[in-house]
Design goal:
alpha/beta, Aspartate Aminotransferase, domain 2, Aspartate Aminotransferase, domain 1, 2 domains, seven-stranded mixed β-sheet, four-stranded antiparallel β-sheet, 39% helix, globular, binds pyridoxal-5'-phosphate
Length: 394
């Protein structure tokens, strides 16, 4: 499905140069394939780029989020306010720990969690079981679990509304986890994505702003959380533990040296990669402005810098998105619905009894959102081809 003939425009594409190939080859000629100098260099690059005390490389964004959940001390049955409009991993990491995701709906412009709903839900969930009930799923949530944290997602690269969310967390003593997996290079009111939660995670699957093949990076200023997450990444080995000492129940979430070298090389090109992505987004924006039934992505005033991840348009209400996808497909242009709501995934419906209509804004954006081909290596001609096909459809 993700295979495309050469003449076709790919959905996404990594942006690799000889420098990356050389960096990975150098590792293969060395003797150190794990926990060597490259993971340290990659982490150092992130500390510098984001301006944080700690960066911890892991083997996926999902693994990083899971460690943030562990570090926040979230226990089985405890509740975490989060969004149903995301990639499934942001909810799954809560389920891994037996926690209860409490979904609230989203802002229709950005697709980010609605801060007013976060405030209301947090107040009600903290006030006792009878007021909590209206926010909980129909079934599958154990009685009486404490509200423990908020997990916000920077959707498509735009940071969530942290100036409204942070005070809720502070007032109620909740953890705040930032899923910044789509937001490398973004800024919220001049503050970098990755610095907006207590802990935050970036991800490096090949469609992200930088890639390591598979990989992720946790960033935080919290010394204790960082020490715990370093231990959990490495089979639960605390500082001072030998190879067969395991202070904690941990995981193998380490990032290997080949991936780390690739990541460090990509980080040296970060500004260039982001500038190229911005240029492609601008080319789309200019051309799509002329197509009345297409809503181009709208940037919030709070997004003072955008690290473009995907380019998701919305078809106007009443337009048949399937028809659009099929017509693009027959012109050799891939496109993807984006996101598919988490609460309507089969395993979520089965466990929690969710139904269509539970989160109407999420469902509306899910029905109308369409990711177009997007990457830093896309040419203006390719963008023009996509937009020309779109403009001829309706
Ligand atoms: C990419 C992504 C992740 C992490 O994905 P991995 O494939 O595990 O690296 C998590 N959350 C969001 C919102 C993402 O887009």
């Amino acid at each position: 499905m993700d295979y495309h003939a050469d003449h076709q425009i790919p959905m996404s594409s990594p942006d690799l140069t000889e420098a990356e190939i050389q960096a990975v080859t150098d590792v293969l000629r060395s003797t150190s394939l794990s926990m060597g100098p490259n993971i340290q260099a990659f982490e150092a690059a992130f500390r510098a780029a984001i301006g944080v005390r700690h960066a911890i490389a892991v083997n996926s964004g999902t693994a990083g989020l899971h460690l943030c959940v562990r570090a926040a001390g979230i226990q089985p049955g405890e509740r975490v306010i989060t969004t149903p409009f995301s990639f499934v991993a942001s909810t799954n990491v809560l389920l891994f720990e037996g926690a209860v995701p409490v979904f609230v709906d989203i802002d229709p412009v950005s697709g980010n969690i609605d801060p007013e709903l976060v405030r209301q839900a947090a107040a009600d969930l903290s006030a006792g079981e009878s007021t909590a009930k209206k926010w909980l799923p129909r079934q599958g949530a154990p009685q009486g679990g404490a509200l423990k944290a908020i997990l916000a997602v920077d959707v498509f690269g735009q940071p969530a509304e942290y100036d409204a969310i942070r005070p809720v967390a502070t007032t109620l003593g909740l953890g705040l986890i930032e899923d910044a997996c789509e937001a490398l290079g973004s800024e919220y009111k001049g503050r970098k994505a990755g610095r907006l939660g207590d802990t935050a995670v970036f991800a490096f699957y090949p469609n992200k702003q930088i890639t390591t093949g598979e990989g992720g990076m946790i960033v935080t200023d919290d010394d204790a959380a960082a020490e715990m997450m370093r231990a959990l990444r490495n089979q639960g080995r605390a500082p001072g533990d030998t190879w067969l000492d395991h202070t904690h129940l941990g995981y193998n979430y380490r990032l290997d040296e080949m991936s780390s070298a690739l990541g460090a090389a990509q980080m040296r090109r970060l500004d260039d990669l982001l500038a190229k992505r911005r240029q492609v987004a601008d080319w789309y924006g200019e051309r799509l402005a002329e197509i009345p039934w297409v809503e181009a992505p709208a940037l919030l005033a709070s997004t003072t810098r955008m690290g473009w991840f995907v380019y998701v348009i919305r078809v106007a209400p009443g337009i048949d998105r399937t028809m659009v996808t099929c017509q693009l497909e027959s012109a050799g242009i891939p496109s993807r619905p984006y996101f598919s709501p988490i609460h309507l995934q089969p395993y979520m419906v089965q466990r929690f009894g969710y139904r269509s209509g539970d989160f109407p804004v999420t469902e509306d954006l899910a029905v109308r959102g369409l990711a177009l081909p997007f990457s830093s290596v896309m040419t203006e001609e390719q963008v023009a081809v996509v937009c020309k096909v779109l403009s001829g459809l309706i």
